[in-house]
Amino acid sequence: MTSPHSTRREALRALLREEHCDALVVSELLNIRYLTGFTGSNAALLVHAEDSPGNEDRTVFCTDGRYRTQSAEQVPDLRREIARACAEHLVGLAVQAPARALGFESHVVTVDGHAALAAAAADAELLRAPGLVERLRMIKDVGEVALLRAACDAADAALAQLLSSGGVRAGRSEMDVARELESLMRDHGADGPSFETIIAAGANSAIPHHRPTTAVLAAGDFVKMDFGALVGGYHSDMTRTVVLGEPATWQREVYELVSAAQAAGRAALTAGTASAAVDAAARQLIVDAGHGDHFLHGLGHGVGLEIHEAPGIGALSTGMLSAGAAVTVEPGVYLQGRGGVRIEDTLVVTDSTPELLTLTTKELLVV
Ligand code: ZN
Ligand code: ZN
Prior knowledge:
10 helices; binds zinc ion; 2 domains; Creatine Amidinohydrolase, Chain A, domain 1; six-stranded mixed β-sheet; single chain; three-stranded antiparallel β-sheet; Creatine Amidinohydrolase
């Protein structure tokens, strides 16, 4: 039976042949995790273009002595080497393999790292091969979507419990609410929060990436909560904005506007659509309402092994969405000194309606 990791390495080989690389030295740790399952802090992976599933003699994994046992468990299906300078060691092996055109991840290798690789490569040619694994990571396989679903479920369940137990109430500090929400995500199966939880009350809700403070929630506040759970290395990302007590007219108006823009963004989210067009579908409503200057970030971003990864969905994005991409849709309107609203979901792009992973209601919740 082929493992998902073996299937991913085979997909990478097709890209290597397109790029005329005999082999690629992978040094980005999340890319190595994606291709092998290894979760340690030092490793490199050599993927040879002419290997195939079941015949991966020239595809070699390398880590240092601390991870001898862990790598034997996590990477049982590849030849394993132990060395301190993993990438250089693999370049040395590749040159003997022989690989004449050797790709490296030029978007992550430092200048000093490149000098060390070049020394190990001797007279073989080092080719810049940026972003190849990231291109594959953009499209999630079934196992990845299952982990994203589990991460989103944990976040949904945690927020439901926080709200039903009265955890969001006047008199509590932003920090207290953030800590409780993170603890509830763990109770609901998360390995931890997927990034530092944002709880932003009152005027603070107008700051897009506010860090929780000792500021106390008060009646009449918008409370913006942007948070996510981490499950098996995969991140969820969701924002909901609630109001403490009866909302004022301006709060209802801003909320309804952001909610309509978010729905328009989700409706535009289909395979084959330009990312910039999805951003525009949501943004146009906000611009038409006179709030264009109050929505200063992109509409969304990819999520997966990283909280922010490809594809970006913004006004300047150049790509097209593909089925299987996991992305957020998160418009916001921020009125300085008064308050702001952001509504964010994590979704998986399909050929028709996207699969919504964050299921908490988007009705304006009065708590
Ligand atoms: Zn978020
Ligand atoms: Zn986000």
